[in-house]
Amino acid sequence: MDGTERNLTNNQLKAILLILETKTITEGVKKAGISKTTFYEWLKNPEFKAEFIRQRQEIIDLALHELKTSTSEAVSVLRELLQAEGEGIRLRTAQAILENVLKSVEIESLEKRIEDIERNLRK
After folding, report:
1. What would the pLDDT profile of 77-111 be if each residue is shown by its tens digit?
2. Domain that holds residue 102
3. Shared domain check, 60 and 92
4. Per-residue pLDDT tens digits for 41-50
5. Same domain? 81 vs 62
6. Domain count, the chain
7. Contact predicate 30/36, CB 8 Å
8. 60 and 94 share a domain?
């Protein structure tokens, strides 16, 4: 438990968990037994807001990890679909592959440009 958690009440910590496990804030505050107004007041507290953001980011990181571990399987499915009998399926699959490769190349190019700019700024 870090210092932030120690400065929050049990109700606040419980509310964070319940809100983050639901699809909407409205659903979450109802489950937590607090009003939306209370939740938004708590968000004005820097420690509560920081903890809420930290836990939300943790959930996002876990979800991204799960997606990344499925990448190989997804690529295998796309490769199989390239051999499908239907031309429409093959075409959409090929387009999806090409679009994603192009996005990847664009991102790599942008990353390199940003690194070059940052390096030049440090000089």
Report:
1. 999 999 999 999 999 999 999 999 999 999 999 99
2. 72-122
3. no
4. 999 999 999 9
5. no
6. 2
7. no
8. no
